């Protein structure tokens, strides 16, 4: 109780009062857990009520969350010049109902990206979306921007990117949205983008790796790598590495990698089970566009999983998502055969307007119980 009194939270509920030897703590992303100092164990459920809880709302004015040398979160009250390991928002926790409807039940094929974020306030959050001038990327960027986030459209074609910015501003003139040049087929461009972003001295709370190439004829980038592999995977891999320090300093932060169900229909190992590097960036004689795309999407998922393993202890989570089977977009534009197939399938697919991120949630390399777009 002394700790509660110190943080100004001594007005507690008797039902939620902890038994002796128990302590209430929070994770970096706002989930409450309980530590038993006698038995030296932790658990998510309240020891008396059995409920799970999470923090609601932002830190009070003047408070800041930091991490000590042991990786434990503590809180600084700059106004009263004091520190505490007790989250000042613990007085405003909300119950997590274990019997609540699943994401699949809450959203359906007619749910829009705007509806997914309904009621969320992303004011103060900074979001980067690659390939955001059209399709999934544009709908994602627009939804974030119209919910208060500062959104950066990272695109190769700046003419189309600026048009996308104008479309978003046309819906809400106060939206904080801008375009920056990013060509994933050129590693120097990726490096320049990272340098330009860091020069802004802003945080990075969400990085959506969305840009992709599909059904390209075989070609090599200026970096000497097969184009599909570099655009879909290696460019994003390099981008995340360059922005990793910003993400960690902005924690809680999140990386969302748009992959595909087609990752299941390929392999990148040789007959002995070892990674075959020649399959990642194949020669012209060994190239098949669909297979190259599938392999790049498998790389996306492996990368996302490993990224989460390495950075989640530092408050950065990573999720790989499948955006939906045969969802009509412009990704097929590079070959007339795929354009014909997508056109024939169009009456049976979702448009960009009805794009449902929860299709991705079903496939996500999930960490926690929240939507990939939630904090």
From TrEMBL:
Residues 1-21 are annotated as: Disordered. Belongs to the short-chain dehydrogenases/reductases (SDR) family. InterPro entries: NAD(P)-bd_dom_sf (IPR036291), SDR_fam (IPR002347), WW_dom (IPR001202), WW_dom_sf (IPR036020). One of its GO terms (molecular function) is oxidoreductase activity. The keyword Phosphoprotein applies. Keywords: Apoptosis, Cytoplasm, Golgi apparatus, Lysosome, Mitochondrion, NADP, Oxidoreductase, Phosphoprotein, Repeat, Wnt signaling pathway. This is WW domain-containing oxidoreductase. Its main location: cytoplasm. One of its GO terms (cellular component) is nucleus. The gene is WWOX.
């Amino acid at each position: 109780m002394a700790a509660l009194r110190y943080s100004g939270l001594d007005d507690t509920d008797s039902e939620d009062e902890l038994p002796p030897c128990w302590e209430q703590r929070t994770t970096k992303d706002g989930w409450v857990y309980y530590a038993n100092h006698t038995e030296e164990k932790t658990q998510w459920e309240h020891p008396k009520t059995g409920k799970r809880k999470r923090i609601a709302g932002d830190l009070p004015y003047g408070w800041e969350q930091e991490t000590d040398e042991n990786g434990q979160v503590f809180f600084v009250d700059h106004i009263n010049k004091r520190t505490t390991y007790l989250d000042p928002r613990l007085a405003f926790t909300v119950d997590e109902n274990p019997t609540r409807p699943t994401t699949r039940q809450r959203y359906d094929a007619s749910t829009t990206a705007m509806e997914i974020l309904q009621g969320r306030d992303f004011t103060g959050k900074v979001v980067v979306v690659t390939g955001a001038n059209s399709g999934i990327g544009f709908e994602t960027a627009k939804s974030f921007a119209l919910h208060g986030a500062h959104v950066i459209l990272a695109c190769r074609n700046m003419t189309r990117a600026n048009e996308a910015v104008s479309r978003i501003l046309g819906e809400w003139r106060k939206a904080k949205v801008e375009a920056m040049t990013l060509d994933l087929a050129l590693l120097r461009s990726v490096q320049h983008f990272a340098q330009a972003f860091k020069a802004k001295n802003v945080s990075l709370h969400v990085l959506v790796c969305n840009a992709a190439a599909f059904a390209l004829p075989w070609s090599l980038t200026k970096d000497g790598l097969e184009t599909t592999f570099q655009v879909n995977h290696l460019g994003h891999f390099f981008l995340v590495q360059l922005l990793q320090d910003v993400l960690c300093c902005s924690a809680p932060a999140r990386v969302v990698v748009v992959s595909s169900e087609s990752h299941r229909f390929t392999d990148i190992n040789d007959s002995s089970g070892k990674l075959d590097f020649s399959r990642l960036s194949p020669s012209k004689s060994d190239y098949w566009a669909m297979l190259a795309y599938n392999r790049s999407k498998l790389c996306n998922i492996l990368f996302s999983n490993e990224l989460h393993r390495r950075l989640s202890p530092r408050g950065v989570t990573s999720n790989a998502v499948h955006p939906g089977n045969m969802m009509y977009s412009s990704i097929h534009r590079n070959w007339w055969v795929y354009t014909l197939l997508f056109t024939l399938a169009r009456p049976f697919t979702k448009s960009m307007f009805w794009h449902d991120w929860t299709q991705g949630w079903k496939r996500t390399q999930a960490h926690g119980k929240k939507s990939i777009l939630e904090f």
